[in-house]
Task: inverse folding
C-alpha cells in the first residue's frame, strides 16, 4: 500500500481513493507541508502563497517522501528548494484539452460578439456585422501540450496557425507555420494565445514594443501566467485600439485587488484562472499520479520530471 498526502480538496481526494484503489490518501491542508508522517511516501502538492514564499524547507524535510507530484504544470507557485531533495514531477499535459477548449470558446466569443450580440428588448433588434473564424489566423506563443491540442482544432475550423517556440525542433502538427520572433507573430495573428511558462526570460515579455507590433485589433488570449504581460502597457494598447480585445484567464497578482482597471475595461474579458477546471483534468491528474507511483515503485524515472530551466 502506497500512502500519499494530497493538498487538493477533499472532493478530489475521495475520487482519488476510488481511482487508485491501491493507494491510501491523507488529506493535507494547502500551504507549507509540515510534520508529515514518516510513512507518507508521496506528496501531491497544490499551489499556495505560503508554500511558494517559504525561503527554506520545514524542519524534518523531506520526511519519508519518495517523490513529489505537482498539481500544476508551471513551477512558479513553488519554492526553489523543492527541486533538490527528491524527484519532482509536474502535471504537464493534464490540462491541455480543457484549456484548448477554453481558448476556442474565447475565439468564438470574440468573433461572434458574445454575449453582446444577445438582446432583450425590441429596440435592440438590428443586425450587426460579425467576424469569421474560418480564414482568420491564430498565433501560438509556445508550442507545448496546450498549443499542440489547440492547433489541429483551429485548423479544422479553417484557421491558419502560426507558432513561435524556444526549441529549434520541428513543430509536431502538420501545417503549423513557424515564425521568427514575437513581433512577426503579433503582426500576423488575428487571435494570439500565450502558452509559455513563466520564467525570468518570459516575465513581462509582452511589453509595449511587442504590443506596438500587433496587427490592429488583435485578440490576445492569456491562459498561462499574468506576469507574462506588462499590464500597464496592455491597458495603453487596448485604449489605443491596437489590441482589440484581451481575454485573460490569468492576472498578476491573483486575485486582482478591488478597483483594478481590468475589472471594468470594456475590451477586457477577465475570468478567474478557471480554464483548466473540468472533471477530465482531475482524472488526467489521478492517472498521471498512478503512473508515477508505479514508475517510482519500479525504480524508473518519473513521467514529466521537472525541468527547472524550462519552467515546467
Result:
Amino acid at each position: 500500500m502506497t500512502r500519499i498526502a494530497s493538498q487538493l480538496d477533499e472532493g478530489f481526494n475521495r475520487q482519488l481513493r476510488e481511482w487508485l484503489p491501491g493507494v491510501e490518501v491523507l488529506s493535507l491542508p494547502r500551504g507549507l507541508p509540515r510534520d508529515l508522517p514518516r510513512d507518507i511516501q508521496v506528496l501531491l502538492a497544490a499551489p499556495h502563497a505560503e508554500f511558494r514564499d517559504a525561503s527554506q524547507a520545514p524542519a524534518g524535510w523531506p520526511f519519508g517522501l519518495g517523490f513529489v507530484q505537482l498539481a500544476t504544470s508551471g513551477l512558479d507557485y513553488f519554492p526553489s528548494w523543492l527541486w533538490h531533495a527528491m524527484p519532482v514531477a509536474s502535471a504537464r499535459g493534464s490540462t491541455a484539452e480543457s484549456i484548448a477548449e477554453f481558448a476556442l470558446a474565447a475565439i468564438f466569443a470574440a468573433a461572434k460578439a458574445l454575449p453582446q450580440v444577445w438582446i432583450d428588448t425590441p429596440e435592440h433588434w438590428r443586425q450587426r456585422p460579425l467576424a469569421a473564424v474560418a480564414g482568420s489566423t491564430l498565433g501560438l506563443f509556445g508550442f507545448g501540450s496546450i498549443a499542440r491540442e489547440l492547433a489541429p482544432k483551429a485548423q479544422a475550423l479553417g484557421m491558419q496557425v502560426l507558432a513561435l517556440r524556444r526549441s529549434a525542433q520541428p513543430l509536431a502538427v502538420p501545417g503549423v507555420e513557424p515564425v521568427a520572433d514575437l513581433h512577426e507573430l503579433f503582426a500576423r495573428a488575428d487571435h494570439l494565445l500565450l502558452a509559455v511558462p513563466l520564467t525570468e526570460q518570459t516575465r513581462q515579455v509582452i511589453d509595449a514594443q511587442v504590443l506596438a507590433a500587433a496587427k490592429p485589433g488583435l485578440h490576445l488570449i492569456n491562459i498561462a501566467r499574468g506576469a507574462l504581460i506588462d499590464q500597464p502597457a496592455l491597458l495603453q494598447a487596448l485604449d489605443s485600439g491596437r489590441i482589440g480585445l484581451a481575454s485573460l484567464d490569468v492576472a498578476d497578482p491573483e486575485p486582482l485587488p478591488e478597483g483594478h482597471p481590468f475589472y471594468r475595461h470594456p475590451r477586457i474579458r477577465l475570468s478567474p484562472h478557471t480554464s483548466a477546471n473540468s472533471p477530465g483534468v482531475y482524472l488526467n491528474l489521478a492517472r498521471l499520479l498512478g503512473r508515477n507511483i508505479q514508475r517510482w515503485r519500479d525504480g524508473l524515472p518519473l513521467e514529466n520530471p521537472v525541468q527547472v530551466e524550462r519552467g515546467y
The radius of gyration is 21 Å. Residues 96-270 form a domain with the Rossmann fold fold (CATH 3.40.50.720). The chain has a mean pLDDT of 96. The longest strand covers residues 243-248.
